[in-house]
C-alpha cells in the first residue's frame, strides 16, 4: 500500500567525515508496465522473461556501482603514488647535493699552520 505525500531520505557521514560515500537506492512505485504489451495473457514463460530482465537490470546497476567504486579507488591510489614519487624525487635531490658537498670537503686543500715550540 503506497501512501501519497512527500518522502525524505536522510543520510549521515558521521562515521568517517574524511571519505566521500556513494549511496545508491532503488525503489519502485505502482504497477510495472507489461514487457510485451501485445501479449495479454500471463504465462510461465513471460513471467520468467520478466524476472530475467529485472535481474539483468539489477546486475547491470550493481556492476556499474562496483566499477565506479573501483575507478574512485584507482584515482585515489594514482594521486597518492604521484605525491609519493614527487617526495622521493625531492629527497633524492637533497641527498645527492649533500653527498656532493661532503665529498668535496674530503678533497679540499686545508692548510694547517704548525708552530714549533722550543726551537
From TrEMBL:
<dbReference type="GO" id="GO:0005789">
    <property type="term" value="C:endoplasmic reticulum membrane"/>
</dbReference>
<keyword id="KW-0256">Endoplasmic reticulum</keyword>
<keyword id="KW-0472">Membrane</keyword>
<protein>
    <recommendedName>
        <fullName>GOLD domain-containing protein</fullName>
    </recommendedName>
</protein>
<dbReference type="Pfam" id="PF01105">
    <property type="entry name" value="EMP24_GP25L"/>
</dbReference>
<feature type="domain" description="GOLD">
    <location>
        <begin position="1"/>
        <end position="29"/>
    </location>
</feature>
<dbReference type="InterPro" id="IPR036598">
    <property type="entry name" value="GOLD_dom_sf"/>
</dbReference>
<feature type="transmembrane region" description="Helical">
    <location>
        <begin position="81"/>
        <end position="103"/>
    </location>
</feature>
<dbReference type="GO" id="GO:0005794">
    <property type="term" value="C:Golgi apparatus"/>
</dbReference>
<comment type="similarity">
    <text>Belongs to the EMP24/GP25L family.</text>
</comment>
<keyword id="KW-0732">Signal</keyword>
<keyword id="KW-0812">Transmembrane</keyword>
<keyword id="KW-1133">Transmembrane helix</keyword>
<dbReference type="InterPro" id="IPR015720">
    <property type="entry name" value="Emp24-like"/>
</dbReference>
<dbReference type="GO" id="GO:0033116">
    <property type="term" value="C:endoplasmic reticulum-Golgi intermediate compartment membrane"/>
</dbReference>
<dbReference type="InterPro" id="IPR009038">
    <property type="entry name" value="GOLD_dom"/>
</dbReference>
